[in-house]
Amino acid sequence: MKLLENRTAVVTGGAQGLGYAIARAFADAGADVVIGDLDGEAAAAAASSLDIGDRAIGVACDVVNLDQVEHLCATAVERFGSLDVMVNNAGITRDASMRKMSEEQFDQVIAVHLRGTWNGLRTASGFMRDQPEGGSIINVSSIAGKVGNLGQTNYSAAKAGIVGMTKAAAKEVGFKNVRVNAIQPGFINTPMTAAMRPDLIEAKLADTPLGRAGEPSEIASAVTFLASDMASYITGVVLEIAGGRHI
Ligand code: NAP
Fold it and tell me: Percent of the chain having pLDDT more than 70?
């Protein structure tokens, strides 16, 4: 029996990067997978590339829009019969020093990360609390939410907010066997980090005991663990996956 067999998992922002790696790991672990992303065609293409046939689908979903998140989760339940794992992964950056950051840049990042995660958390836990077996929700924070990143007052605030939200929600829905955890990745090779300045990348790696960037698959394996019954007594934790950075 595979780790996530007979489970249905939804991953937001799953068309590329960490979300896609998580969707792939879930598929490999036997789950039915629903990929939500801004671009519905990209989500469908990502789902079909998982090579598990009609056990993976893609759905257009802007996580900032509660109706669309409800549609995403309802589609998972209608199509596969349950919603067992929810990964609130969708994210953006709009970096600038505070002097140069516009209100719009601040609001966009807060909306996608905080409102988006809350939309997913609220909707998924609503389905999961009605299932006898409960469910597992994983929120994607960042090491930036622990230490703060230069040029990312918006992003660091949002990622720290996800930590508080995770712990509050874990207390609220634990009695229904719904577990809520967060991960804090460090520097991981994805399209989001590909555009960073080489000197900044070098500085981050110099501060990383394992001495290298992480790979999306290394995030995905930890998320698969948290999603599975292997983590059945773990809730409200924040798991750093950062090669030892900022310990
Ligand atoms: P990525 O490669 O840019 O992928 C993010 C995905 O989310 C994209 O497909 C993007 O679509 C989608 N997305 C953006 N806004 C959305 C919205 N409103 N609704 C639905 N989907 C949306 O980024 P990543 O590096 O994989 O990051 C994934 C998550 O990990 C983010 O929450 C990020 O903050 C977090 N994280 C990443 C790192 C890292 O080093 N990479 C470290 C710590 C935390 P578009 O491409 O169409 O915009």
Answer: 100
pLDDT at 93 over 90: yes
Ligand 1 center–CA 192 separation, angstroms: 7
Rounded Cα gap, residues 122 and 141, in angstroms: 17
pLDDT of residue 107: 98
Task: Note whether 135 and 125 are within 8 A (CB).
Answer: yes
Count Cβ atoms below 10 Å from residue 69 Cβ, excluding itself.
28
User: Which of the residues 20, 106, 155, 187 is marked catalytic?
Assistant: 155
Q: Residues in the chain, how many?
A: 247
- End-to-end CA distance of the chain: give it in Å, rounded: 36
Domains of the chain: 8-241 (3.40.50.720)
Backbone angles phi, psi at 209, to 5 degrees: -50, -35
